[in-house]
Structure formats: structure tokens, C-alpha cells
Write the C-alpha cells for this entry.
Amino acid sequence: MRASLIQIRVDDSEPVAERRARAAELVAGQRDADLVVLPELWPVGAFAFDSFESAAEPLDGPTHQAMAEAAAAAGVWLHAGSIVERAPDGALFNTSLVYAPSGERAAVYRKIHRFGFDRGEAVLMSAGDELVTVPVPDLPLGLATCYDLRFPELFRGLTDAGALAFAVPAGWPEARHEHWTVLARARAVENQAYVLACGTAGAHADTPQAGRSLIVSPAGEVLAEAAGADELILRAELDPAAATTLRDRFPALKDRRLGLAAPKREAAAGLAD
């Protein structure tokens, strides 16, 4: 299976409609790939909080239309990154869209872990509450987004749901680029699954992006990696049998111990129970 990660540049000066058309053209050009992944919130920028409200669109909005047509034109499975989705009740979500080679929408994932603590995405957007996998032939794909990468239990859940690979679109900042690489490899190693981690180039609202998209094997080997934050297309060949073979030969996942009791808390010396 041939995978392409499009590390698209997000520039505040570029109109969203122009970037949408440019992204669609880049996707449509990937006819020699089987799976294509775009970054998180590339239409608006992951840190462009002030634009979330104005840039929000419904699931069937202009980004959906452009990406569905691009997936069909290239004949690829397309993880179209994420958009600011406006739900029918007005709530905003950081929502990933995945398309089959026919152009039919195959999955929707609303980001579970919102970044920002007490500002930005964490207060402007609602949280998703469902794990999502996509039945990509021979390589079931688990979906996660950016900050989700810091929460290994999400990836365990996707593994239990049958995922052999994870697509992780992101708008990861340059300031924490080392975390990005380490966490992507850790999620691959601990779950014995491919990780396709696609970041953005450029800067969102004056926040320089890490770029450094990478494709990691189930054994933790970096198969392809962007050297920095320039716009580029990263490619690698994936062996759909690699994850299952590794899990058979080194069955660490079978040694998981679940449901352990919480540690006992000893009473402080000299204090009554």
C-alpha cells in the first residue's frame, strides 16, 4: 500500500477558498497512492482561534465537496484532515473527514481531546466522544487528531477495535516538535501499528508549525520523515501484513493486564483512621 502525507502550507494571507482548491488539486494528483492524509484544520489554521466561528461549515459544506471530488479523481482513500464543523445545534467541533476512492464519505471523527486548557480550542469547541475506525482494505485505520497523540488510552481503544494503522493529522507547533516525533513513535511501538502523522507547514496566527510529518512502522522505525516545516508530500510503502506479523512474533499486546485495583493509600503515621 502506498501512502502520501501532504504537509500543506497554511498562510493567513491565503484565502480559504484558494487553499481549499489548492489542496484538492494536490490530492487529485496522488493517483499513484492508495491512501492520502492531510493535516488538522488546514482550511483555517489550528491556532487561528479568532477565525473558528467565521470559518465553521457543516459536514456537507465546501470542504466536503472539494475533498469528495478530489478523492474520486485520484481514486484514493483520503483522510482529508479536519475542519471546524458547525453542528445543527450550533456547536463547533474539530472534525476529521475520510473518503473512500469512490468519493463517498466513509467516516467522521470529532476530536476527543481539545487543546488549550482554558483557552482556544478547549473552550471554543465541543469534544467528541466516539472512537472511530475506517475499514481501509487490509489496513484498518484508527483516527486521532493532534493533541490526542498524548493520550495512549485512545490508541489502545482503537487497537482493540481492530486498527492496524493510525492517521494523526495535526497542527503541532514548532515549540514542541520533539514531543511530536517521540509520541508518534511511541504510539506505533506500544500498539504495533503504523502511524501516519501529518503536520502543517507555515504558521497559524503567528504560531510557527513543526511540520516534520512522519510515517512510522509497527516496529517503531521511521519510514519517511519531513526535515522541517516546508510544504511537501511525504511518501512511503506500507506492508499491510507488517502489523499482524509483528503481533504474532512479538505478542506483547497479549500480556496487557486490565482492570487492576487502584493502589491502597496507607494512613499517615500518627493519624487515626
